[in-house]
Design goal:
mainly alpha; globular
């Protein structure tokens, strides 16, 4: 029973079993999820706490259930896309929440779209140092960490673009 729940979490409740582009689909669903959270005005501190719990638990689950999948970083495991995409979006969510710009959904939507495009770019191409993480760490931490770093890169590029270029 616990293994079944764990597999559901790791596959984002079956998204990882999609035949085509499960990682991209998981990223799109994650974006939609954050847009829903933004529209509900959920406190960012609560979300940050829940994110950390999910992040740590997913690393443990990947290590625990790795034998249930074809490989440690199986395409069916898409919780790492959720983690990376969420980390890319969280700073914008928190910033707009703190600033009280809850009514400016347009700003958040633009950040979501930009982060999604950049996150998929980094997650698929795996430039340095993401490629090193992907090659060297063959455990739950490595599976999640390459996507977390892709999320950080995505967020940083969007921040730099918004605050220093536009």
């Amino acid at each position: 029973m616990i293994d079944k729940i764990g597999k559901n979490i790791l596959t984002l409740f079956g998204i990882g079993y999609f035949k085509y582009a499960p990682g991209t689909t998981a990223s799109i669903v994650t974006c939609a999820f954050w847009l829903l959270l933004y529209s509900l005005k959920i406190n960012f501190l609560l979300l940050g706490f829940l994110y950390l719990i999910i992040l740590i638990y997913s690393i443990i689950l990947i290590d625990k259930l790795s034998k249930k999948f074809s490989e440690i970083d199986a395409k069916e495991i898409v919780i790492d896309e959720f983690s990376g995409m969420s980390l890319a979006l969280f700073p914008f969510y928190a910033y707009l929440g703190i600033k009280g710009w809850w009514d400016s959904m347009d700003d958040f939507v633009i950040a979501v779209i930009a982060c999604f495009i950049l996150f998929r770019f980094f997650d698929i191409l795996k430039p340095f140092p993401i490629n090193l993480i992907d090659k060297k760490l063959k455990n739950g931490l490595g599976v999640v960490l390459d996507d977390v770093v892709a999320g950080i890169f995505s967020s940083l590029i969007v921040w730099i673009t918004i605050f220093y270029i536009l």
